[in-house]
Write a structure and sequence with these properties.
Number of strands: 6
Number of helices: 4
Strand content: 5-15%
Largest sheet: 3 strands, parallel
Radius of gyration: 33 Å
Amino acid sequence: MSMRLHNLKPRPGAKHRRKLLGHGRASGHGKTSGRGGKGQSARSGSSTRIGFEGGQMPLIRRVPKRGFNNKRFKTVYVPVNVESLNEFADGARVDVEMFKAAGLANGTWDGIKVLGDGELTKKLTIVAHAFSASAKQKIEAIGGVCEVIVKLPPAHMRASIAAKALVQAEKDKVRAEKKAAAAKA
């Protein structure tokens, strides 16, 4: 049977009747309407937060917490092996846009890292965020150039980094003046 608009229907079990509450004993949900007998949870408008254990110390607070997880802040590099760079023309300048166009840097990432797996046969100028030692050696051995992209910190951190740099410069200046004064005396 072919699928047509007139014979489409939902999968079995995808649609079901609404649970009718308070429709008498025969409905199976009469009297207390599935709320049990009395107590806080039987009252209208009553709800407790997730993890609430009736005043008992909740599990999440009973279990000891240790360590630190830096997962949110880690730098995710997309790996590109030296061998896959052979698809570019000899003498070409391979930058981030070319990596993307060739399908070598897909998905979401913070930078591109060139790794040294395989052999490189073409002289290339490669612009990436990081290079492994073996990749750098192979690229430069054939006469190519490795250019590292210096990534700026996020905008919200730049101001604090600049402020710290100014404070450090001021401290250095004061130290230099003290040293000069001590040298004269």
